Amino acid sequence: MNDFKEMIYDGTHRLFDDFLAWDELKKYEKQIWHEDLWSEFQKLGFTNIFNSDDKGGIDASWTDAHIILKASGYHGVPLPIGESIASNWFASRNGMALPSGHWAITGGRIDIDEKLNKVRFQELDVAWGRFAKQLLHINDQRITLIELDKETSVEKQVNLANEPRDKISGQGTVIESVETNLATEPLRWIGSLVRSCQIAGGAGQALDLSLKYSKDREQFGRSLAKFQTIQNYLADLAGLAAALDAISIAAANDLDINGLSEKSRAKITLAAAKCRTSEGVERVTRLSHQIHGAIGFTYEYGLHFYTKRLWSWRDEYGSAVEWGNFLGDIAFNNSKENIWPLVTNEEI
Q1: Domain count of the chain?
Q2: Cα(126)–Cα(133) distance, rounded to whole angstroms?
Q3: Residue 201 belongs to what domain range?
Q4: What is the pLDDT of residues 110-142, one digit of tens each?
Q5: Less packed terminus of the chain by CB within 10 Å, N or C?
């Protein structure tokens, strides 16, 4: 890790450590927007990381963003960290200026009245949508920034971790709209990378909590970490956490190199990352809770803050089955002689 990435790593972990003790996570499970943390996150410039220096950013890459996303998963941050990074990437690569700290993003269907410069929509899926004032709409041909009308209605919903996953209906005014040329369903691809990185972070937290608990907890006069069965669980969990981290980094790096066109090789790596990380959630949860025993299921102990998010994230932007089918179709449509070139070439 170079000095620049170490600065990002230290800054994010120090920030989240300061604000997110388990008591704080309990508090913000009740849907209170963590304004102090969000304000500090913005001050560090992490909502504008892909912007150039002259536009308040740090001209970051996706491997830089991976550090922030993984840290947000590791600490179970109850804010739209991933959404803010995704919206900044879409805007910055297309020369669009977003409001400071923008995060509300969707890829659902909208109807645009070009004469009136108005947009209408029904039941758009927007994470944390109840707090949104502007909305960034993404498709493969156009990116549109929308000012939401005050009459916009919100159907409040939550995921397993009690984070807002709302549906919004109503209308708004187009602030800015730019043409783009991306792969079909671009938000699904970028969202899958965001969740892959966050799952890798949550898996790392589950491992660290398991290591600490097994060392501190004694049974029959010795720590749990001395028992061979627990050692096997820890070894499996450590290997799994490392694998999820590695494949999410590979996907971020491939996106940096190859971009997100319809023929980009990065689509294979992104699909593989989400397939693998989503698939790994069950084992991460099972192993970490087995190591903790009954205490892992109690509300007072913090393991559940991370494993509930893992179970929520594993199906967002595509499940392991969906991405596995995508990869299987590519393999099926290529002859066996083409499988290795398919994996190593830059285009699909």
Answers
A1: 1
A2: 12
A3: 186-344
A4: 998 877 889 999 999 999 999 999 999 999 899
A5: N
